[in-house]
């Protein structure tokens, strides 16, 4: 059988089991494009390694591609489509772990101030919509996919809640919103004419009335970041500040605020994990070491604790 036929059958099989399988399907489609219309048994180990290696340095995407291909070959082996797997048995680890970019308050202000300046007829997203998306990502700590899949019905202004449906780990959750974000969303929905559209309509639409896509948003953000002069000099061109880093900035700034207020951060971490939609608290604990400011606040907390008479 042709590679494309087996990939189509495998994707249908996994989705038939209730999985979304979006990322893996993209990887497998890319594999099909790279190798062309070949018979799957003819694929060599060198071809697989060339696809896995790509053109840049080793990143976690190598692991993602390897994982997707491993599943495909297990499927093909079990059904007799191939006699053996050409995948490498060992998976190299990236030398560096990517560290998210944490925006400063000054950088966030520059980004918001520059939104109007990137308005262009070729830009799919109007400035008001894009500004609201940015504020939602930072103000509620949402993933970009969660923000862009919101419908009008998912925003309950009276209850001050966002309904996030089947997010990254196929779980839904309710996200409360504060006064500032409530005002911003209320104003946006009034201009959007949300009361006159179907509740199932997407909250964020392009100039053409189609749903805003992740690609639309990320392309607009690249232009915005350059305009606002938000650049990570140390990281080089490969790892520049991203739209998704607004979520990371939300989490770190919240932790810094708790430390400054003298709150019990360890007790509050599980609540932050739930708010962010993390399955395991370890996903939230990593924020504790992301910035010098956060480490400084933790150090000050420990110093005050150590200097108390009862701990001498």
């Amino acid at each position: 059988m042709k590679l494309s036929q087996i990939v189509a059958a495998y994707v249908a099989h996994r989705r038939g089991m209730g999985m979304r399988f979006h990322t893996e399907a993209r990887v497998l489609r890319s594999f099909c494009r790279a190798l062309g219309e070949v018979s799957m048994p003819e694929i060599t180990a060198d071809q697989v390694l060339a696809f896995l290696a790509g053109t840049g340095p080793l990143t976690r995407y190598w692991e993602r591609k390897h994982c997707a291909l491993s599943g495909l070959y297990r499927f093909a082996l079990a059904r007799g489509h191939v006699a053996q797997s050409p995948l490498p048995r060992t998976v190299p680890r990236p030398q560096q772990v990517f560290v998210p970019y944490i925006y400063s308050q000054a950088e966030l202000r520059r980004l918001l101030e520059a939104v109007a300046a990137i308005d262009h007829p070729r830009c799919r997203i109007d400035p008001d919509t894009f500004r609201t998306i940015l504020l939602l990502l930072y103000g509620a700590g949402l993933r970009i996919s969660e923000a862009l899949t919101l419908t009008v019905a998912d925003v309950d202004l009276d209850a001050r809640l966002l309904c996030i449906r089947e997010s990254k780990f196929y779980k839904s959750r309710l996200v409360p919103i504060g006064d500032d974000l409530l005002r911003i969303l209320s104003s946006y929905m009034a201009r959007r004419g949300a009361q006159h559209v179907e509740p199932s309509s997407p909250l964020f639409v392009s100039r053409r009335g189609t749903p805003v896509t992740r690609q639309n948003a990320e392309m607009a953000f690249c232009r915005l970041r350059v305009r606002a002069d938000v650049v990570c000099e140390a990281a080089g061109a490969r790892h520049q500040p991203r739209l998704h880093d607004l979520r990371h900035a939300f989490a770190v700034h919240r932790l810094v605020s708790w430390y400054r207020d003298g709150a019990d951060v360890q007790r509050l971490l599980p609540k932050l994990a739930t708010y962010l939609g993390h399955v395991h608290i370890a996903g939230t604990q990593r924020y504790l070491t992301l910035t010098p400011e956060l480490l400084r606040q933790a150090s000050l907390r420990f110093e005050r604790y150590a200097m108390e008479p009862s701990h001498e």
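The chain has 13 helices and three strands. The radius of gyration is 23 Å.
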